[in-house]
């Protein structure tokens, strides 16, 4: 049951009705959380009911371990350390078993074979449960936070299970921290019309991004990148890589938009996951704006414990490279992802050294950095634009590693880009994709303009002045004041939503594309 | 909340209005390929003088069975009804179309496209059929709630095509020249419009085949085998006899996927226990025997294959 299906639409309508009815009938937070829990397990079991057992087991183990950690008379005692170690081992073991076992065995076999040794290593065929990378990180983060005293231990199994399995973010994030989401689930929620409206709009924006751009860009990318041998010319590969950069952004940020919008309809505020990453002016800034919930997770549980930037340059490099390489591996059991992570670590480190003093290589935001604003002078504006384009070019280069089927293909693509881009014939090959580029080039340009124009907001359809942060504290979102935008222009806005909705339906591809991050 | 709900309702009504306008601008084509389902069901339900020989499958059955070979076979005395229409309907739907209509003495030949053994309904085929014959909604029951949900999801894509069709209708008023129409079917339900035509020089439709290991743990494969086994039991209970046949395939594709075919054949023999009228290798045919990019035999190849099948069926019924 993916977000772009009619089944999900009907499911959400039913959950919405039951959830808010339970609140009206006085069932309180228990009733609401029970509805969420049942709905979430139904949503997850839709893929394969067997996955639910794994999710439940993983959740219950961490619930019990966290309670045991909190029950220790001395914080961070040896016994507490042992318990948090067990949690790490179990969660990472689960990931290793389901996601990486085959990869490591195959890699070890290949390495032995290259040494002339015939290895008969054990093989295990397991289905990768959807979303396992996300919820294991969520539960692991919870036990570590309880150990560190950063999150209160949850004494209600119902609340905790609802937190781990919350269906909008269960399968592909955002990865929610216990200290942010659990308090919201531990009190009864009341309906907030401003938040619900904003949620519905964010969902519409996400759907449009996914269907109009991501799915269609994906078809072009697949044509060019399909097959292990690189046939396309350098310019075509560059165009496909550029298309992939927007495909993955529109795909994943669309998922996050729909998840956040969906939660907002239920009166919950999920963490922001993307903050216009392609307007970043350095690789480090890019990582503060891209998949922010994962970046902050790695920052808090890997980078900082490894010493971060506090123990000298050598330790900083070690922390950076380990963090980024692990982040790459998290994305998938393939050497391309490992290389992608390592190259990103390198870029972040080198860029930080090159611009030393201006910015330390932080991973993930405490606060999202402000978007670039209009500069005082033309020269400064051009400098900002240059930094943005430079960063974007570096990011696109790393996407080649991410998208390629294997490292030889990635090397072939880089070689073609470098060597086969200097002739007219190479550029003329773009004509074969002229129809696609003519149709979707302007749409993409329009999308970039819309993002730039509304870069001070979480999504372009948000009312200026709306602020959802009050939801977290149970105080309700700040509604924009009545005025031109909210009242007078309503028919015009509705016309805009209607046009966007029908354009989305019109451009819906025959073969619906799944969300890229489902595979992770 | 009431204000929010009222706004949501008004917004939904506006969209319904747009939908109605679009629907009206793309009127239903009575000669649409999928409208042949109406004729096929009418024939299935018509009282026949002799027991029926019902063919079940997708378009490969429609194109690659020549019912005349069975109608003319002196030893068969069966009235052919070819239900083959489109593989996008999925196996459960195809079986559901027939299983409520079985009579004692009927003979059923099930020859689904091979990939239907591990996939469900696809595209928006079911919606296209339901638009033409709403009563077919009952056929969805055979697939269970998940199949119904899958069909609901395909509705969005059917709907998207409808919107595109409306846009096309508004900008041009030109019918596409095609033989794939309701009128292309003959009285038996065979697709006959391609008989005598030159084969189209089109690249074959490529499908990604699973490995035997993937099939072994594929819940859809399990489910489809169970459905076939259940259908066999219903046939027996109704006093009808049921046989399996294979979907024609390109020789090269068959060679590439031979291991999968062997696995499927073994599973069918073990789990479904329906007699097979032919071996997969017998329908692994040269490219020249295919009419277009699908598993659709030319008229001549369909006649040869049907005569062979008719002889096998005659022998099997005589046992």
TrEMBL record, chain A:
Annotated keywords: Acyltransferase, Cell membrane, Membrane, Transferase, Transmembrane, Transmembrane helix
Pfam family, one: MBOAT
InterPro entries with a match to the protein in the record: Ac/AlaTfrase_AlgI/DltB, AlgI, MB_O-acyltransferase, MBOAT_fam
Species, as recorded: Plesiocystis pacifica SIR-1
Subcellular localization, as worded in the UniProt entry: Cell membrane
GO MF terms held by the record: acyltransferase activity
KW Kinase (keyword) present: no
Family: Belongs to the membrane-bound acyltransferase family.
Bilayer-crossing regions: 47-70, 82-101, 121-140, 314-331, 376-402
Domain of life of the organism encoding this protein: Bacteria
CC terms in the record's Gene Ontology section: plasma membrane
Membrane topology: Multi-pass membrane protein
Any GO BP: alginic acid biosynthetic process
Taxonomic lineage: Bacteria, Pseudomonadati, Myxococcota, Polyangia, Nannocystales
Protein name (Swiss-Prot/TrEMBL): Alginate o-acetyltransferase algI
Automatic annotation (TrEMBL), chain B:
This protein's name: Uncharacterized protein
Annotated organism of origin: Plesiocystis pacifica SIR-1
């Amino acid at each position: 049951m993916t977000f772009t299906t009619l089944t999900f639409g009907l499911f959400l309508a039913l959950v919405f009705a039951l959830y808010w009815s339970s609140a009206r009938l006085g069932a309180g937070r228990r009733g609401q959380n029970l509805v969420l829990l049942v709905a979430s397990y139904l949503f997850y079991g839709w893929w394969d009911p067997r996955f639910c057992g794994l999710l439940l087991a993983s959740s219950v183990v961490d619930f019990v371990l966290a309670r045991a950690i909190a029950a220790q008379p001395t914080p961070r005692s040896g016994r507490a350390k042992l318990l948090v170690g067990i949690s790490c081992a179990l969660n990472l073991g689960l990931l290793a078993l389901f996601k990486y076992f085959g990869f490591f065995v195959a890699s070890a076999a290949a390495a032995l074979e290259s040494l002339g040794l015939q290895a008969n290593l054990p093989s295990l065929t397991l289905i990768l449960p959807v979303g396992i990378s996300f919820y294991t990180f969520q539960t692991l983060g919870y036990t570590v936070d309880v150990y560190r005293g950063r999150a209160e231990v949850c004494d209600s199994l119902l609340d905790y299970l609802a937190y781990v399995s919350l269906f909008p973010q269960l399968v592909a994030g955002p990865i929610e921290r216990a200290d942010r989401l659990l308090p919201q689930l531990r009190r009864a929620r009341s309906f907030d019309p401003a938040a619900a409206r904003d949620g519905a709009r964010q969902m519409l924006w996400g759907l449009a991004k996914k269907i109009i751009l991501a799915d269609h860009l994906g078809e072009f990318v697949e044509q060019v990148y399909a097959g292990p041998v690189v046939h396309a010319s350098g310019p075509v590969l560059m165009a496909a890589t550029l298309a992939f950069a927007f495909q993955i952004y529109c795909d994943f940020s669309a998922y996050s938009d729909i998840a956040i919008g969906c939660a907002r309809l239920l009166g919950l505020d999920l963490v922001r996951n993307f903050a216009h990453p392609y307007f970043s002016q350095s690789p480090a800034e890019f990582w503060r704006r891209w998949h922010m919930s994962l970046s902050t997770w790695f920052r808090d549980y890997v980078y900082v414990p490894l010493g971060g930037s506090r123990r000298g340059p050598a330790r900083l490099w070690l922390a950076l490279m380990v963090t980024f390489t692990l982040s790459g591996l998290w994305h998938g059991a393939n050497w391309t992802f490992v290389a992608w992570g390592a190259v990103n670590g390198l870029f972040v480190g080198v860029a930080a050294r090159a611009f030393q003093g201006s910015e330390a290589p932080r991973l993930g935001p405490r606060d999202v950095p402000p978007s670039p604003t209009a500069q005082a002078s033309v020269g400064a504006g051009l400098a900002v634009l240059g930094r943005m384009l430079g960063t974007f070019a570096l990011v696109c280069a790393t996407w080649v590693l991410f998208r390629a089927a294997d490292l030889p293909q990635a090397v072939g693509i880089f070689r073609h880009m470098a060597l086969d881009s200097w002739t007219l014939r190479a550029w003329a090959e773009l004509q074969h994709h002229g129809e696609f580029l003519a149709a979707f080039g302007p749409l993409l340009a329009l999308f970039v303009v819309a993002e730039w124009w509304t870069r001070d907001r979480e999504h372009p359809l948000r009312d200026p002045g709306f602020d959802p942060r009050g939801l977290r504290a149970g105080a309700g979102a700040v509604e924009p004041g009545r005025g031109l935008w909210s009242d007078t222009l309503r028919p015009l806005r509705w016309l805009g939503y209607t046009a966007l909705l029908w354009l989305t339906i019109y451009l819906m591809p025959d073969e619906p594309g799944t969300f890229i991050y489902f595979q992770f | 909340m009431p204000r929010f709900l009222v706004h949501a309702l008004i917004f939904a009504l506006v969209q319904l209005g747009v939908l109605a306008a679009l629907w009206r601008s793309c009127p239903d084509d009575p000669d649409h390929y999928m409208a042949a389902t109406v004729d096929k069901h009418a024939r299935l339900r018509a009282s026949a003088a002799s027991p029926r020989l019902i063919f079940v499958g997708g378009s490969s059955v429609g194109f690659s069975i020549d019912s005349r070979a069975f109608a003319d076979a002196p030893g068969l005395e069966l009235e052919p009804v070819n239900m083959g229409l489109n593989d996008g309907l999925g196996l459960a739907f195809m079986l559901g179309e027939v299983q409520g209509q079985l009579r004692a003495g009927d003979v059923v030949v099930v020859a689904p496209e091979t990939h239907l053994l591990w996939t469900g309904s696809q595209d928006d085929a079911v919606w296209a059929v339901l638009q033409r014959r709403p009563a077919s909604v009952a056929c969805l029951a055979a697939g269970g709630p998940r199949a119904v949900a899958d069909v609901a999801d395909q509705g969005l894509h059917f709907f998207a095509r409808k919107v595109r069709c409306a846009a096309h209708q508004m900008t041009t008023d030109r019918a596409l020249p095609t033989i794939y129409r309701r009128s292309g079917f003959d009285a038996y339900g065979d697709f006959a419009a391609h008989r005598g035509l030159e084969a189209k020089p089109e690249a074959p439709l490529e499908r990604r085949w699973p490995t035997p290991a993937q099939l072994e743990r594929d819940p859809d494969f399990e489910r489809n085998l169970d459905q076939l086994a259940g259908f066999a039991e219903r046939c027996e209970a109704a006093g009808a006899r049921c046989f399996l046949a294979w979907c024609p395939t390109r020789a090269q594709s068959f060679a590439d996927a031979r291991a999968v075919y062997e696995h499927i054949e073994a599973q069918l023999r073990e789990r479904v226990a329906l007699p097979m009228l032919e071996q997969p290798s017998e329908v692994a045919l040269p490219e020249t025997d295919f009419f277009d990019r699908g598993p659709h035999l030319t008229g001549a190849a369909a006649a040869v294959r049907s005569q062979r099948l008719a002889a096998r069926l005659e022998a099997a019924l005589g046992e």
